């Protein structure tokens, strides 16, 4: 079995007019989201580990205090969305490169899509519905600012 490799000087076949070049936009997204993720992650690490008492200060009350402000909710959700889509797009590229059977490729891509959507939705729900004063927390473990029932 032999493969024919075209000359590297051959012009690439252009997509027909009206079609979207998803690979190009995926490539651009990976670069842009990578830069934004570096900023978001180092900002996250700086606030959580460098400011204050470091890792000893991170507990339930610390997270409750952060999620009491919309700024940190949006920061963390943006980091979640960018990281999950960035990672899923990278995995999609790996699946497309190494899964030669079309049926297996479709199954893997479908599972990857479902996993990414489920994790993004659950993570977003956790951030925006976080309630540090839940009635499920025992009264002796409630935070100082929570009303005791």
TrEMBL record:
SUPFAM superfamilies attached to this UniProt entry: Fumarate reductase respiratory complex transmembrane subunits (SSF81343)
Ranges annotated as spanning the membrane: 28-47, 67-86, 107-130
Any one GO cellular component localisation term in the record: membrane
Cellular localization per UniProt: Membrane
Keywords: Heme, Iron, Membrane, Metal-binding, Transmembrane, Transmembrane helix
InterPro entries named among the record's database cross-references: SQR/QFR_C/D, SuccDH_FuR_B_TM-su
Domain of life: Bacteria
Pfam families: Sdh_cyt
Annotated GO MF terms: metal ion binding
Main location class: membrane
Annotated protein name in UniProt: Succinate dehydrogenase
């Amino acid at each position: 079995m032999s493969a024919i490799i075209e000359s590297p000087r051959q012009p690439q076949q252009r997509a027909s007019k009206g079609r979207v070049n998803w690979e190009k936009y995926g490539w651009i997204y990976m670069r842009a989201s990578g830069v934004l993720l570096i900023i978001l992650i180092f900002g996250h690490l700086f606030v959580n580990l460098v400011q204050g008492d470091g890792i000893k200060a991170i507990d339930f009350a610390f997270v409750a205090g952060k999620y009491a402000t919309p700024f940190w909710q949006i920061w963390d959700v943006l980091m979640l969305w960018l990281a999950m889509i960035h990672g899923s797009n990278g995995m999609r590229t790996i699946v497309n490169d190494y899964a030669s059977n079309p049926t297996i490729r479709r199954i893997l891509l479908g599972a990857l899509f479902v996993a990414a959507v489920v994790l993004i939705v659950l993570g977003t729900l956790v951030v925006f519905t976080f309630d540090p004063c839940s009635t499920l927390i025992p009264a002796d473990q409630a935070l100082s600012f929570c009303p005791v029932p």
